[in-house]
Design goal:
Shape: elongated
Largest sheet: none
Distance between the termini: 34 Å
Order of helices and strands: HH
Number of helices: 2
Strand content: under 5%
Length: 83
């Protein structure tokens, strides 16, 4: 069973399109799968960096809200001014 996908569309510069197209042709894949691989790797690296940062902050006695983010903020959008 494959992971469900979400539709996400955005305009990209022509140069980025060219590179996606070239990589897709070079490796026999479609551009969408190349873009998904790139975004998946980006998300993995961001998650890893977050873990490293939080471990270092804890080791140095810093609070998790050190960067000004509210600990309870889960990133979800607010409706009607409430969480």
């Amino acid at each position: 069973m494959s992971t469900p996908l979400k539709d996400f569309r955005l305009p990209i510069p022509e140069s980025v399109h060219l590179w996606l197209e070239a990589e897709a042709a070079a490796f026999g894949k479609d551009m969408q799968s190349i873009a998904r691989e790139i975004l998946k790797e980006w998300a993995r690296r961001k998650a890893h960096a977050y873990k490293v940062a939080t471990k270092r902050m804890k080791a140095n006695g810093l609070q998790m809200d050190f960067l000004g983010d509210d600990e309870e903020d889960d990133g979800s959008s607010r409706i009607g001014g409430r969480k």
